[in-house]
Design brief:
Length: 452
């Protein structure tokens, strides 16, 4: 497909090297649509770059699923790193800096490395015949190049959307993980959970381990693994977690290593992330041949950090959940405010999400709402969100044009015992992380600024 470069965004030249921000703006112009499912174009450019000629690392794990990908990946990264491995990760989207998407041995990729990667992607893309790439496809190729040239022991790749046709799936993983299946991205994946499961399971490879990280996955996920003769390891069947019998607040994991031997670790700390995902992370790592050491696993789980997942900053709880399944988890784990305080929710969503389902999942825990409009064509107007909340019996106090304006409004009336959940989208959380948040309340237990 020919390029469709907009006339007001000039292509890079050797005489005027692009900055990272210029590259990102340029890449948004290269394809007529933002999302174009399929692997043909991105595979061709990857071949030109030499990315498919050999494995990008001695061991690669891919992680797909509707929710839980980020936390599962973060815990795999932390545990493997604690065992002395050099680990690289690719994730999306980012919150504040594009650099967050590529992490090399605990450090975000710097601008210079990413610019070099984009230059190589562009050079390969423009070889005759030129190939059009989406922003995500170009970014994925850049990220894979960065990781392939970093001399890593383990690479963990988060699948962006779907699985089978996602750009990340040009890489053959040694272990593939599916975390959860729920409705999201209905415009691209539909609403049939069995079909969504088959799409996510498209990351499995013949005769290579498949880890199923939920006990409520549709049967289509395991069926696809079986059709490939992939050794399948399912939560609740082949690996388990349970509370420690004599250590309150701690838990026990039991799974299998690469040789099929049963292994167990007791007395594990609460990672402040879903324990299903922690158990899944340990099972996936065990299948890579990593010998799990209890002390190192405990160290990793007690220090793992993941921004925007039930992240407390003073009286504010920030969570990127944007579908009913994620909202249900937030509602279950949101502590009640101190006596006399109100539980506010500042919510901003994209218009292609199931806002009614998210509102319903949160409604039992939220007494007072502030709605905000997110930027761009996909941003759902605050007034629309407000009408949906009111239709479900909720109390909406204010509709703001931006997340920042919603914060400013709340700053004027928060009381010492009020708490605020900010949720609905990565864009909502990113806007709040980029600015100081008004407190007006004493911190919760802990240091008040923990990132979990």
């Amino acid at each position: 497909m020919p390029d469709s470069v907009q006339p007001d965004v000039q292509p890079p030249s050797s005489r005027t090297p692009f900055s990272l921000q210029q590259w990102l703006a340029y890449l948004e112009t290269l394809h007529p649509v933002g999302i174009d499912m399929g692997l043909a174009r991105v595979s061709q450019v990857a071949e030109r770059m030499g990315l498919l000629a050999r494995p990008i690392a001695p061991c690669v794990i891919t992680v797909a699923g509707t929710n839980g990908k980020g936390s599962t990946l973060a815990m795999m990264d932390s545990v493997a790193h604690a065992h002395g491995q050099r680990v690289g990760t690719y994730t999306s989207p980012h919150l504040l800096r594009y650099n967050e998407r590529v992490n090399v041995n605990g450090l975000e990729a710097d601008d210079q490395l990413l610019v070099q990667g984009f230059e190589l992607v562009e050079r390969a893309r423009l070889q005759d015949p030129a190939i059009s790439l989406t922003y995500f496809e170009a970014g994925t190729l850049c990220g894979l190049w960065c990781l392939a040239n970093a001399e890593l022991d383990l690479v963990v790749l988060e699948v962006g959307l779907g699985g089978r046709l996602d750009a990340v799936n040009i890489i053959d993983a040694d272990v593939a993980v599916v975390t959860t299946i729920a409705q999201d991205h209905a415009n691209f994946l539909g609403t049939d959970l069995a079909q969504i499961g088959r799409e996510k399971a498209g990351i499995f490879r013949a005769e290579r381990p498949a880890v199923l990280g939920s006990q409520t996955l549709p049967a289509s996920v395991a069926e696809h693994a079986q059709s490939l003769a992939s050794p399948t390891f399912s939560l609740g069947q082949h690996f388990h977690h349970s509370p420690s019998s004599d250590q309150p607040g701690q838990w026990r994991w039991q799974g299998q290593n690469a040789d099929g031997e049963v292994i167990a670790i007791d007395g594990l700390p609460d990672p402040a992330l879903p324990v299903d995902n922690a158990a899944t992370a340990l099972q996936a790592l065990a299948l890579t041949g990593l010998a799990l050491n209890k002390a190192r696993v405990c160290e990793a789980l007690s220090t793992v950090k993941l921004a925007g997942r039930l992240q407390w900053m003073g009286p504010w709880c920030l969570d990127v959940g944007h579908n009913p399944h994620a909202a249900q988890y937030v509602a279950q784990h949101l502590p009640a405010p101190p006596q006399g305080g109100r539980q506010w929710c500042l919510i901003g969503m994209l218009n292609d999400k199931d806002s009614d389902g998210v509102i319903q999942a949160l409604a039992s825990r939220i007494s007072d709402w502030v709605c905000v409009t997110l930027p761009g064509e996909r941003g759902c107007p605050a007034e629309d969100l407000g009408q949906r909340i009111v239709a479900q019996g909720g109390r909406v106090h204010f509709c703001a044009d931006t997340p920042q304006a919603g914060v400013d409004w709340l700053a004027k009336l928060l009381t010492p015992n009020d708490r605020v959940l900010a949720t609905g989208s990565f864009f909502t959380v990113a806007a709040l992380l980029a600015r100081p948040l008004p407190t007006g309340a004493a911190s919760l237990d802990g240091d008040g600024n923990e990132i979990r």
